[in-house]
Each structure stands twice: as C-alpha cells, then as structure tokens.
Design a protein that fits this description.
The structure is a homotrimer of 355-residue chains. Chain A is of the alpha+beta class and 355 residues long. Helix content of chain A is 20%, strand content 30%. Chains A and B meet through strand 2, helix 1, helix 6 and helix 7 of A and helix 1, helix 3, helix 5, strand 8 and helix 6 of B.
Chain lengths: 355, 355, 355
C-alpha cells in the first residue's frame, strides 16, 4: 500500500499528475524527539524563552516539564512532507493556518500525514499547484501541529492528464478562538524576572514596533546541521557541488532556519511571548546564504484576550528579518509595495503572553 | 598495571616494539552514549532510517526503544583504540570482520578492549604492521561490536628487538550465519510507508546498482565535531596549524565521517536496509577535505536469506562514495584496476532487510 | 519587582549608575541541563576525562551517574549574568574565587543570582567598575558554583550620581580547605587504565611543566554554537556585520571557549585530574579568532593533600593556551613581564586527583 509510483529503487518524488484530490500521504520516517534535539537546537539558535529553557519555570506554569521549542517541532514535521510533496517543487508558494496543538516533549514521536486539498494545473501544462493540509501527531495520536501549504510542482509528462480540484479558501489569519492553550496552564506564579522582561500583554499596543537589536551571522555548517536535524532533504541546502551551477551559485538556506533565528532574536523585546500559538502566514521574501547576518524587528498587529481566560492574552505579530541591515528603522515595504531589498522574512503569527 | 611504557606525563602512544602477541589493551575512557549523541549525529548526517529515528517504529519491530545508529557505536568504539594502537601509525591499512552485536541504546556505556593478534616487522626495521582484534562491550558485558584492524606503526628505535607473530587469516567476508539478529526482532508489522520505501529484500537482485542521487558538502566544523564526538584524537583531523605544513596542506577528514555520510545518502534507494549487520572490508581510497561534496552509489554483491528466519534477508552491498562526482554512472575502477580518481570510499558490508 | 530600569521593551542592560551596593540581581532564564548539552559539548571539545564520559566510571567513584563537565556548568551560569551585569561593559577585568560545589547532573536546573559587592567610579565619570559575587544553584537550592567577577561598565549619563562601595579583598587563590569534595567520593577502585594515565597526585611535582602536545583549530560555527549553548548573548561573538566595523574586523571568541579547549587538551598529561575544584584567576591575555589553532601547556603551582582525605590530592595548575604556537617551549612571559605574543589564556585553578 505504498503511496508512490516508482520506476526504480530511488525515490523520485511525486510529480503533479501523481496527486489526486483527497489523497492521503503518510510520510516516511516518524521521528522521536529528545533532549538531545533540544540541545542541538539551543546550540544553533541560543533561544532564551524560559518555558523551553527550564523545567522549573515550566512546572511553575503547570507543565510537567519543559516542552520543546514549538519551532523545532514545526521544522521536523514540515521536513517529513518534503520527499512526498515538494521533491519536484518549482516553488514553495506559501503556508497558512498553522496551529500548534499539544506541546511536544522529549520522548514524543512525531508522525506526519498530509491530505491533498487542492490541485490546479498551470495553463502551460508543465506544472501545477498542489495544496496540502498536514497533521503532525504524537505517539498518542494527539495533534501537535497542523498546517496548510501550497507548492508549485513540476509534471513528469506535460501530456499527462491531471486531476484538479479547488483548494478550500483559507482565512487570512487564525482566529484567536482557534488558538490552543496548553492543558493545565496557570500563570499565577509567572515570574517576570526569571522570564527576562517586565512587559506583559497590556504593555504592548497595536501598531507598536520593536527593534530586536542583535544580529547573528549564519555559517554553512549551522544551517546544514539544522536542516539535517529536521531530516529535511531538500537538495539545495546541502550540495555545493551542484548549487555552484545553480541560480545563486551557492547553497540556499532553509527558510525555517531564518524563522528560528528571528524568533530567538525576538526574545529581546518579547521575552514574555512564552509560546507561539499559530502562524498565519509567512513569506520568504528573498533567499539567505551563509555569511549573511540576520537582524529582526516586530510589529504588534493585534492584541486579543484569550477567550475564557482572564490571565492570558494573544499578540498577533509581524516579525520581519533583514540581512546585513540593522532594524532600528524597521525596514519593510516601500511606497511601491515592494519589500526593502534587505528583507528576507515576513512572518505573521500569534504568541501567547501573560496578562 | 598500566599497559603503556612512558617517559613522562604525556601519552606518546605505543611504538611497534612496544606491542607483543596476545597483549591485551584495555582502552581508556569508557563512554556512555545518550540521546544527545544521537541528536548531534542526526545534525551531522540527517540519517532517516526509521529504526534509529523513531521509538514507535522500533517498538513495532520488537525493540524496547530506538537503538542508536550502528555507525555511531562503531565510531566511538573505534576512536577508543587510537591512543593505544595508532598514535604512531604511518598508515591505517585495513579492517575486516566487523560484526555488530547487541544494539546500543541511550544510557549504555561502551568499554573497548583490543588484543594483539599479529605483528610483522617491516624489512627496513623502521616500522611494522600491528594486527588487533577489538571488542566493544556494553555495561552488561554484552558485545556490541567486534572487529579486526591492521595498522603500520613506527618503531621508536630501529635497533630495538621486535617480537613477531603471524596474523590469523581473516575471511574476505563475514558469513551470513555469523550475522547477529537483534533479540526479539519481529517483522510482521514492518511498515514500508513509514520506513520510506516499498522495496524489500526480494526486490533487490545481485549485480543491481543504485545511484543514491544526493550529494552533501563537508564543512570543517562538521567533520571536526563528528570526530570529537567520537573522542577520536588523531591529530590530522583537528590541527590546521600543523597540517598546513603537512602532506596535503590541510586537515584530513576522518574516514568514518565519509562512511556515515554514505550510509545516510544510501537511504534513497535502500530505506529498508534497517540495520548494518557487518562490515566485511573498507578502503579509504583517497583522502577527503572540507569543501568536498560526497555522492554515493551501491551495488548488491550478494543476497542471502538469514538462517532460521523466513522474514529476514541480508544484502551484501558495496557502497562507493565519490567526491565532486555525481554517481549516475557508478564511478568505480577502470580497466587497469585503478579506482576512478573521484572515488574516496569502497565499503563492503551486510545489511538486514525484511523479506 | 523587576531589577531593571527600562525605557522601552528592549533590554538595554544596566549602566554603572544603575547598580547599588548589596543589590541582588536574579538573572533571567533558568536553564535545565541535559545529556543533550553534554553531547553538544563533547562535539565541541572532545573531552576525555572519564568521570564525565562514562556512567560506569562515575559509579565506580561513588557518583550516582556521570556528572556534566564542570566547565559546561560554569559557562551556562556565567552566561546568565551577561544581560544584567556586562551588556554595557567596556572590559571584563577579571574573576576570582570561583568554587565548584555540588556536581551538576542531567536534569538539573541552574538558577543564577548575583550580588553587587563593590562599585568604584572611574575618575573620568564615564564609567566605573562593578564587582559582583554570583551564585548558581540547582533546583534543590544547592550551590553548584560561586564566583566573583569585576567588569568596567559604561555610564548612561556622565553627570549621574553614582553610589560607590569598596569591593571586598579577594584572596589570590582559593584555599585547599575551601575546595568541595563531591559527596560520597571514594577512590578505592579508581582505574588508571580506564582513566587514561598511570600518573597520580604523587607523581606531579611543584614546578613541573607539561606540554599537552595537541592543537585544535577553531571554526566560526563552533565557537558560536558553544556560546549560544551557554545562552551567552554578548554581541561580539555572533555578529560579523557589526564586528566588521569593530576593533578587530571580525567576531571575537568567547574566552570561556578557549578555557574549555585548553582543559580538553590537558587530558594529555593530566588525565587523572578528574575534576576542576576551583578557578583562582583567569586572564584572557589576547583575543582569539576563528582560524586560530589553540595549543596548551600546564605548570604545577602547588600540590596539597585534601584535608580529611588520605586518598585525594589537589593540584594547583597554571594552564596557558597559545595560538598558532606549539607549547614544547612553554611560552609564557618574557623577562620584561610581558606575555609571549602567542599566549591567549593564563588560567590558575585547582584540580582534584587521586593519591
């Protein structure tokens, strides 16, 4: 009951005409996450958010122990879909409605399944857009992450018939009522000093912009180690020999690596944003390469109390990462609507913060 | 009861005349392996074989939890022998009959002991070949790995008397009946989809060649981190200041690093080769350096059912790694018997695969 | 009850006039350490001291399991103080009387608190020297490390009034009676062969010098991964874009990285120095950069039996690290009292060794 059509032993991936509406793709290689993964992730990003850093802090919030960084789970779950969904991708077009469910703990095993929810052949018959909804579950079957993604995929044979089907309309943002609050969360003894900032939910105003000040330079071995840790096999990240002849002449950095760098930098200004609850949308505006120094800034797009909780708020943030460009002036888009040339990431997401 | 002769506090290693037939070398620094080691290893190689990646998959095969990658155990055990056996090596000549025993789990401690099984002085009296048989055991005394190795070692003093003794004749390959099947292994619920390939034992034919397609570029910090993780102290891997004056002008990459890269690449085409059972022989045909991109291909040398099991087969594989050379044309040896100049590794080994 | 004065969401750190005598600084982001941290640390330094390497060896000495490397704990605890103490530092002037307490085990959470014990404004009113005494405790409140440190910190406003207070006089060295012996330590079955050296306490003489022989070359990604693992946020280590315009034109390496490299190298000659008990003083004599190859040598400054133990001694060592300079000639200071230009580290510390 394989979900692939193959002509030999090597996985050639699915081409556009191999997909069909409603098709379920059980992705290979489930992955048990560990404190080892957390440590490698720490070495790669140095994140200081207290919830993932300290068991004592996590326990003071009602967690049994420190959950893993949400983005580590995201990258691993996402990486699983690459061999089945995007091995023959021409472009990763977008993702939306990424909702984080149950926290992921060391020892949990992530299984990922995707369902094809939209197929639209391009008019040139050379390719088409595949929309998938993916679910990552732990070993108990509890959802730890779900998201939608659409990718332009090459056809093997331009003359092949290709089934089509409309993609469901996805909301521009996850509603605050859809956000998952970790079970048992209690914030009575949340300690600002240990968390690293006196600023809580009520201190942030919609429209406020925060420069995260610091910058971090990317090395080849760091992004490659990160991407391998996630078992993401997209070729462009690892093979200098072939990329030398490619579009950029060098290895391209996995977009998720930039997201994790930006999140770690955002601690300086958002230390109490203790958990990412959802990603509404993300654009990898420009490619990043080894040697680039990443800076970031954030804007508060919305601020909503979390329903049924009087101790918890959600901030909708836009975090922008720029390369070789400090962010005191908040580089973003020009009057022509085009991005500032230094911008590499435009991420729209919800974080949880104590009120 | 030290097994060294020393003149000062620093370990100068054993010279050829220090060895004697039957001598037992208990190697320093036992090593407890952990999920942390597995995570660093994952960051270095990104291996996707399901058995080591997921506790759930391992449990479905009758393991209590996910064992560590066999090669991680190999590298650690091998590294232990360096200070006593090959610190004064002129050349690592070969290894043979490497048999993997009990799986290694996080929390196990590896102790390694070698026995001198052959000594042959070179006619110039400057050096000799030392043959050792090494055993790595876990904390319960169970063998996790055994192997034979021979190394050309310098003499401290050309005039020193040197005992000799014939090395036992080693078979060209481990017999399939010598392969260790993990205790409790059951394959009834082996899931091809989760493992990443529909191709099982019966689908592979002797003589079949598989291009593993992908390539991965090596960085200095990656091979150095790997080699330190294994506590392998061979100087040539770490010291650019001295290697600049050396034969190659740069740091040489530990041969085992190439083996692990090739094994990880081989997932694409051999995903159900869930465990390496033995290494028959390995040649590090040419040196590798940072910046090299490693590709790999494999040939099926033999395919044997595993005695007493009707669900398990063993494939004898030759995996060849080449640098800066895609392997669609299977670069190997020319008509003159000489290796293609891009080949860096020629590895002959047995893997287990479900029938 | 924050201990900061802030004008916006970003942490600008404390300036000299923000400190006051006796002030207690509870540092942000407690940190749970894990076997993952130990593995990353192993990948970075390759240390072979048996106590931290093997649970079996640790148990033979009366430990419940292998404690983490002392320096890993030191770097993590030290890193915590950076955002509150030295974000506006002009210079790290020194540290003293660093005493290691209870061993740190995987699963322990480190909380760090500092107390201001001295304040001396500089005559130019632009800055002043802040002296702090820091304590790192585990989740049970047991001290795992304490140390004193002094830093020259910029004033925000030269005209601001600045409280002053004399720093306590710190002894040049920790007394041997102040050293902490791990609870339950027993050395009857200490195994020289497994530990890697036949040389015990009585074999070392005051004045003896040991060349540690090997050298290791530093890569950008290695020191950056190390420094992020410690959650040390000092900007100079990570940001090539800004450092390009800085004093050196490149990223500066965290001094603690050099200490860990030197300690790992010192195994060759000091393998039975199973635990660092205290650091008396350390000077980062010159900066180090990626590409430097670090060598090290040690001198025995003192050798004392540990009070109430007839099985344990303490060696006071000076370990000197030099870059791109082998240490067979023990580079140190010239007749003019100035350091040899290759020297980067001069570390004075106590180690425990079996008698």
């Amino acid at each position: 009951m394989s979900n692939k059509t193959k002509t030999d032993k090597t996985n050639l991936g699915n081409f556009f005409e191999d997909f069909r509406m409603g098709q379920e793709l059980r992705h290979a290689t489930p992955r048990t996450v560990s404190e080892g993964d957390a440590a490698v992730y720490m070495g790669l990003y140095g994140s200081r958010f207290a919830l993932s850093s300290a068991a004592t802090f996590a326990q003071s919030l009602g967690f049994e122990r420190a959950p893993l960084d949400e983005l580590l789970g995201f990258h691993i779950a996402f990486g699983k879909t690459v061999p089945d969904v995007s091995l023959n991708a021409i472009a990763n077009l977008g993702y939306a409605a990424c909702i984080f469910g149950a926290p992921l703990y060391a020892g949990d095993t992530v299984h990922t399944v995707s369902k094809v929810i939209g197929l639209r052949e391009n008019s040139n018959k050379q390719s088409g857009v595949v929309y998938v909804h993916s679910m990552a579950r732990n070993q108990h079957g509890t959802v730890v992450l779900e998201w939608n993604r659409w990718v332009m995929v090459r056809k093997r044979d331009a003359n092949a018939a290709a089934p089509t089907g409309d993609a469901p309309k996805l909301a521009a943002a996850v509603g605050v009522d859809q956000l998952h609050v970790p079970r048992g969360l209690q914030l009575d003894s949340y300690d600002n000093v240990l968390a690293g900032s006196p600023h809580r939910f009520a201190d942030y105003k919609v429209g406020e912009k925060i420069d995260h000040v610091d910058g971090t330079t990317i090395e080849e071995s760091e992004h490659a180690m990160a991407t391998r840790l996630y078992q993401n096999t997209a070729k462009v990240h690892f093979n200098q020999h072939s990329e030398r002849q490619g579009r950029f002449g060098k290895r391209l950095i996995y977009g998720g690596h930039i997201i994790s760098i930006a999140r770690a930098l955002s601690f300086n200004g958002l230390a109490n944003a203790f958990r990412i609850a959802a990603i509404n949308a993300g654009s990898h505006v420009a490619p990043s390469f080894a040697g680039d120094t990443i800076y970031a800034w954030s804007e508060v797009l919305d601020a909503q109390p979390v329903p049924t909780r009087n101790d918890l708020g959600a901030l909708r943030l836009r975090t922008v990462a720029a390369k070789d460009q400090p962010c005191a002036d908040f580089p973003y888009k020009g009057e022509d609507g085009k991005y500032h040339p230094a911008v590499v990431l435009d991420l729209d997401y919800w974080v949880l913060m104590p009120r």
